[in-house]
Design brief:
The protein is of the alpha/beta class. Helix content is about 30%, strand content about 15%. The protein has helices spanning about 1-10, 30-35, 95-100, 130-145, 160-170, 185-195, 205-215, and strands at about 40, 65-70, 80-85, 110, 115-120, 145-150, 175-180, 200. The protein is globular, with a radius of gyration of 24 Å.
Length: about 230
């Protein structure tokens, strides 16, 4: 008899809708089991051929080179580059990994904000700890950077990237790559021209622009690519 009453409690006596089983440690609720994260670090097809092929044979990575991503705190060398640019929740091409590879011969820190897995349903408010930590990680790395590198993926709208360019355009530590096919390329070009920001349209030209600015900031290397103090 008790067993029958227990069975009856699994549906609403009014609408006859079945109740979900109570979640337990062994059997969490369906909501708890659902994984809403996306892999923003996955491979993205470069439909517009914006990125050059990776070097072949591969470059020899400098032993002091560091490629840092959130949420871990960056490890800083004497000079650092921040990869500010299109991510768009993983829709942008993997330009950050490309750039890290091309800069890997230098004894520097490269800070890449493209976090491997991210929950797109996370509330974008300061009270959300994950969101707040991500933004503060980026702000801190931007402030410490010797060079801030902007790359605008022509297949995105990149509102946060445009906002960051507005914040740092006058800093004298920005270089920009923006393909003419980007929907606001004209605006980007005018801002760079007005504030003397080095501007290129191809990824291939962005790499030497970053190295030139690092030299302007005082980085000197010997024949083994080690820092000259």
């Amino acid at each position: 008899m008790a067993s029958k009453r227990g069975a009856e409690t699994k549906e609403c006596p009014t609408c006859k809708r079945k109740f979900e089983d109570e979640p337990t440690e062994e059997k969490p609720s369906k909501l708890a089991r659902k994984d809403t994260t996306v892999d923003v670090d996955s491979v993205v097809e470069d439909k517009l051929n914006q990125l050059p092929p990776l070097p072949s044979p591969p470059l020899n990575q400098h032993p002091q080179f560091v490629h840092c991503v959130p949420p871990e705190a960056p490890t800083y060398r004497e000079y650092s580059v921040f990869l500010a640019g299109s991510i768009e929740m993983g829709k942008a091409v993997q330009w950050q990994k490309h750039m890290a590879t091309f800069l890997s011969t230098l004894p520097i820190t490269v800070n890449n904000p493209r976090r491997g897995h991210w929950d797109p349903t996370a509330t974008q408010e300061a009270k959300n700890e994950a969101f707040k930590h991500q933004v503060e990680w980026e702000l801190s790395a931007l402030e410490k950077a010797d060079v801030i590198c902007f790359f605008f993926d022509a297949t995105t709208i990149s509102p946060v990237t445009m906002m960051e360019l507005g914040l740092w355009a006058k800093s004298k530590k920005v270089v920009v790559c923006c393909d003419k096919r980007f929907w606001r390329a004209g605006n980007i070009h005018i801002v760079c021209d007005r504030y003397g920001v080095p501007f290129v349209e191809r990824f291939e030209d962005l790499v030497p622009a970053i190295k030139n600015m690092l030299e302007e900031k005082g980085m000197r290397l010997d024949e083994n690519s080690n820092l000259i103090k």
